[in-house]
Write a structure and sequence with these properties.
The protein is an all-alpha fold. Helix content is 66%, strand content 0%.
Length: 263
């Protein structure tokens, strides 16, 4: 029999630990990226397929088990759009899709993992699909960053901020037309979340914007560390695979060439 899910429970902590472990394993793929230009095609495609499968399973569970109307199961939450961007970035090493995943995956999906809105726990389809999809976004980001060598471009934060405000406008319109609550723009989630500390509606919408801009600034600074290679050395202990200190730079150069082809 499945237990009800509770944030901070043992199964929640174990799920977070599993996501962290998978992200570390994906990062270590960067140590063998020098093996060849297409060396990560299979794991990238497999991960993209896994992300898509988890999303479809989660949506099907909501429709078939929870009997939610289809208008409430559209891919209009921010994490849904991040997942789509992650799949595109994995399949094509698309630069803009990677940047969207980087900023909104680290800035938004992480918060969703810490405070999930779930009713049933392990081993329900809802539980597995949720952590598979949201955790898979961070695993994909780790693989693309440390395996492929992708990095956010200098100044990418500008279009990311513009995309965030476009999301607020478009999803706000969708909520008005459909009577939904995508992006939690109309009300806070039922379960405890970061929004509980940001004031009542509608004032928390202003707090969310301020917090989001601050996170984008921090992540932009982190991206600069990635460009210099300092963060990569701290994580892996060197700049590339054993005996190949130039490997990370070579992997990044290969990906830059492919970005010109696909971006």
């Amino acid at each position: 029999m499945m237990d009800e899910f509770a944030s901070g429970s043992l199964q929640h902590l174990l799920a977070l630990a599993g996501v962290g472990a998978m992200a570390v394993l994906a990062a270590q793929a960067g140590r063998v990226a020098w093996l060849g230009r297409g060396g990560l095609v299979i794991p990238r495609v497999a991960l993209a397929a896994g992300l898509a499968s988890c999303y479809l399973a989660f949506a099907a569970y909501n429709v078939l088990i929870w009997r939610l109307p289809l208008r409430e199961c559209l891919p209009l939450h921010l994490c849904d759009m991040v997942l789509i961007a992650a799949c595109v970035a994995l399949a094509r090493r698309h630069q803009a899709a990677y940047e969207f995943t980087y900023f909104y995956g680290l800035g938004g999906t992480t918060q969703a993992l810490l405070t999930p809105e779930l009713a049933s726990g392990f081993p329900s389809v809802e539980f597995l699909a949720f952590f598979g999809a949201h955790g898979g976004i961070l695993v994909a980001l780790s693989l693309l960053t440390f395996g492929c060598g992708l990095r956010p471009r200098p100044g990418a934060w500008r279009w990311i901020v513009a995309a965030g405000y476009a999301y607020l406008l478009l999803v706000g319109l969708a909520n008005t037309v459909l009577g939904t609550n995508y992006g939690y723009l109309c009300a806070k989630p039922d379960d405890a979340s970061l929004l509980d500390y940001l004031g009542p509606w509608p004032w928390y919408l202003i707090s969310v914007q301020a917090l989001g801009l601050a996170l984008i600034f921090v992540l932009d600074r982190l991206a600069k560390l990635l460009h210099t290679g300092g963060l990569t050395r701290e994580i892996s202990g060197d700049a590339g695979p054993p005996g190949r200190p130039e490997a990370s730079r070579a992997a990044a150069n290969r990906c830059e060439e492919e970005q010109e082809d696909h971006g």
